[in-house]
Amino acid sequence: MRLPLTPVAGALLASPDRSADSRPSSSEERRMTETRENSYTGVFDGSVGFGKKPAVIVIDLIRAYTTPGEAFFAEGVVSAVRESVELLDACRQVGIPVIYTKVLYHPGGADGGLFVRKVPALRKLVAGEPMAEIDPLIPPAPDDLVITKNYPSCFFGTTLASTLFGLGVDTTILIGCSTSGCVRATAIDAIQYGFRVIVPRECVGDRHDGPHDANLFDINAKYGDVLAKAEVIDLVRALAASPARAA
C-alpha cells in the first residue's frame, strides 16, 4: 500500500504575499486549498507496482552527508543511513543486486562543469578524500558494485542503465540522498529508462523537511511508489519466496 502523501504547506501551496484588499476570504482560501489537494485525485494517484527482478540503488550515502561540521551534513541523511541497514540486509539475504553510487571529481573540477560552479563545495569530493567515501555503517559488500558519478542522476554519464538491463532488472529500489536532488533525478531517469521506481520513505534523506516531503510527494504522484520501509522488506521477502523466482 502506498503511503498517503499530502502536499506540504508552505512548499506546494504557498502563494505570493497579497495586500489586504486583494487577499481572499478564509472560505475562498479553504476552497483553493481543497481544489489544489484534490487536483491529484484520479490523475496522479496511480501505482507502478513491484516487479519481479529488483535492484537496490544506494545513492551517494557518503560521509560528507553524515559527518557533523561538513558542508553537506544533514540529519535527515544520518537517519536514512540508519534505516537503510535493515533494508540492505534483507535484500542481500535474498540475492537482490545492490549498486552504490558516489560522487568524485578531478582535482581541477573540469568534469563537474557548471554543476560544481553552482555548488562549489562539491569540489572537495576527489579521490583520496575521506568524506567522499561510503558511510561505514553501510559498507559495500564484496559483490556490490560502486559507480562513480558527477551529476545528480545516477544514470547520467554512467553505466548504470546498461548494468541494470544486463542483470534483467525491472525495478529500482532507490535509497540515499538527497531526496530533492539526486534521488529525484534518478527516479525520473529510472522511469524514463523503463524501470519501476520504489522509494522506501525512511531510507532517503535531505537537509530540510520541506524539500524532502515535497519531493517524496511528487515522486509518489508522478514517477514511482513511495512505500514504508517495512512494506518494501515484505515485498522483497515475498518475491524471494514466490515459486516463479525459485524456478
- Radius of gyration over alpha carbons? 19 Å
Secondary structure class reads alpha/beta
Low-confidence spans: pLDDT under 50, at least 5 residues?
7-20
Question: Could you give the count of β-strands?
Answer: 7
Q: Looking at the structure, what is the overall shape?
A: globular
Helix segment count? 9
Order of helices and strands: HEHHEHEHEHEEHEHH
Mean pLDDT: 89
Query: Beta-strand level of the residues, as a percent range?
Result: 5-15%
Please provide a written account of the structure:
- Helix 4 links the parallel strand 2 (98-103) and strand 3 (145-149).
- The chain is built from nine helices and seven strands, in the order αβααβαβαβαββαβαα.
- Helix 3 runs parallel beside helix 8 (229-241) and helix 6 runs parallel beside helix 7.
- It has helices at residues 26-38, 63-66, 75-93, 113-118, 160-167, 179-192, 209-222, 229-241, 243-246; strands at residues 54-59, 98-103, 145-149, 171-177, 196-200, 204-205, 225-227.
- With 247 residues, the protein is of the alpha/beta class.
- Strands 1, 2, 3, 4, 5, 6 and 7 form a seven-stranded parallel beta sheet that branches.
- Residues 7-20 have low confidence and may be disordered.
